[in-house]
Structure formats: structure tokens, C-alpha cells
Amino acid sequence: MYNNGTDANLQNTNDYCINHLEETAGWTLKINKPLIFEEYGMARDGWNDQDEYDPTTPTTNRLKY
Q1: What is the distance between the alpha carbons of residues 3 and 10, in angstroms, rounded to a whole number?
Q2: Integer Cα distance of 57 and 39 in angstroms
């Protein structure tokens, strides 16, 4: 899911995340418990042999997400 920087892949990632949050929220309502979010971070683009942790690597998809 996270191995390319195409717009279609970014859309799939967004859809997956929204679906996960909706499902989790449904579970919390059923058991009457709060939903707790943890910090989530997306690495830099890192496609085409770039280092995803190098500060000079762009953050195009992370900013869109």
C-alpha cells in the first residue's frame, strides 16, 4: 500500500484510513468507550531510490494526506 507515490495509491491510503476510523468509531459506540488516537506519521516520499528519512527528500504525499 505504501510503495509508490501515485495519486491512485494516495487515494487508496486515504480511503483505507477513513474506513478504519469509521469502523473503530462504530466499535467504541457499541461498547460505550472512548476512541483514542495515537500520533500517526507518514514518511517523506522516498520513491525512486530516495531515502524517505533524508531531510532533502520531498514531502509531497505527506502534505496531501
Answers
A1: 10
A2: 22
CA distance 53 to 51: 5
Digit-coded pLDDT (tens) for 13-50:
889 889 988 888 889 989 999 888 776 667 787 776 77
| Cell, residue 1 | 500500500
The answer to whether the CB of 16 falls within 8 A of the CB of 1 is yes
Q: Would you state the cell numbers that stand for residue 36, as one nine-digit string?
A: 483514542
The pTM score is 0.55
Q: Return the pLDDT at 35.
A: 83
Return d(Cα 63, Cα 65) in angstroms, integer.
Answer: 5
Give me the DSSP letters along 7-55. HHHHHHHHHHHHHHHHHHHHHHHHHT---------------TT--TT-T
